[in-house]
Amino acid sequence: MRSELCAFVMSESVFSTPTARNKLVEGCLDWVESHAPQFTPQGHPRIASDFQKRGSVFKAFSELGIVLEALHRSCYRDRPAVVRLIEIWTEAVRQEGLLDDVNSTIELFHYNVVLFATLRKIGTAEPLIEASVRRLSKRRAGTRGEMTPWRMLDVRHFMVQAGITHDFPPAHDLVRSSALLRRIDLPETTDVDIYAITHLIIFLSDVGRAAVTAISPYELAELREYVGTALAMTYVESNWDLTAELLISRHGIGSLAKDEPLNYAASGGLCAAQSADGSMPHDPWLNPNRESPTDGSEFKSRYHPTLVALLLAAIDGTNSQS
C-alpha cells in the first residue's frame, strides 16, 4: 500500500506543496464519487432518442475514464475513492447494451475507442468488446477525410492505446497542419482556440506523461512561450478549466526555472477556487456570463473543470514522484 502523501519533487511539480495537490485531489474525488450516477449513460435513461444529449453523456463518461486511468497510474491509485470509482466505471462499461448503444451510431465511434482503450488500462477488455471496437474501426475507415487534424490526433492516440491497427497519418504529419503550429495570436483567441492547443499537447504527450517530440526544438520553445502567456491570461481571468489544461500542457512541453512562479500562482489559484463540495467552479465556456447555473445544468457546468483539475493532480503526482 502506497503512502497517502505522494512522493514530491519540487522542480517537476506545478504545485508549490504536496499538501495543496493532495487537498485538491481529496475534494475532487469526493464530488465525483457523489455524482457518479450522473456520469454513466445508465443514469440518463430518457436520452436514448436524443443523439446530441447521448453524445454529451458519453463524453462525460469517457472523460471520467481517462481521468481514472491517470489516477490508476499515479500515486493516488490506492485511495479508496479511486478504487471504488474504477469499479463503478468498469462495471458500467460492461453493462449489457452500453457498447451496443455506441455501435448503433457511427458518429460516437470516438467514445467507443476511448472506452475500450481505457478499459484495457484499468480493467480487463473482454473479447466481445474488442471485436466490437475493431469492427467499428473498419466501418469508420471511410470517414477519415471528414476529421480535423485535432480530432485525428485525438482518435489516433486512443487507437494506439487500444492496440488497434489504424491508417491515420503519422503524428508528425498531422501536427504540421494542426492548430499547434498555426496558432492564433493570443489577443485574438477564443477559449476554443486555446482548447485546441491544450488537447493537441495532451494527446501528443500521452496525457502529459511524455515529452512532445513531434515538433522541432525551436517550435517547442515557441510553443512553451505561447502556453505560458496563455496560462497567465486564463489565471488572471479565473478560467480554472483552461488553467488546469494549460498546467497539464506544461508537463507535456516542459517548464523552465523562470516558469515556476507562474505555475505556483496558477495552481494556487486553482486550489483556492475549489468549492466547499469539492467541485471546481463552473466552466465559463459553457456559461459565458459566469453566473451559477439555475436551469438544472449544475452537473454539466462543473464536471469538466473538476475532472481536469483531478487529471492535473494525477499527472503531477505521477511525474513528480521519486
Please explain how this structure is put together.
- With 322 residues, this protein is mainly alpha-helical.
- It has one domain (10-319): Glycosyltransferase (Alpha/alpha barrel).
- Helix content is 61%, strand content 0%.
- The chain contains 14 helices and no strands.
- The longest helix is centred in the first third of the chain and has 23 residues, at 51-73.
- It starts with 17 loop residues before the first helix and ends with a helix.
Characterize this entry briefly:
The protein has about 325 residues and is mostly helical. The chain has one domain (about 10-320): Glycosyltransferase.
Topology:
Layout: H1 18-34, H2 36-39, H3 51-73, H4 80-94, H5 98-103, H6 109-122, H7 127-140, H8 149-162, H9 171-176, H10 191-204, H11 217-236, H12 240-253, H13 260-273, H14 298-319
Helix pairs in contact: 1-4, 1-14, 3-4, 3-6, 3-14, 6-7, 6-8, 8-10, 10-12, 11-12, 11-13, 12-13, 12-14
Could you name the key traits of this structure?
single chain; 322 residues; mainly alpha; Glycosyltransferase; 14 helices; globular
Strand content: under 5%
CATH level-two architecture: Alpha/alpha barrel
Q: How many domain units?
A: 1
Give the helix level as a range of percent. 55-70%
Class by helix and strand content?
A: mainly alpha
Largest sheet: none
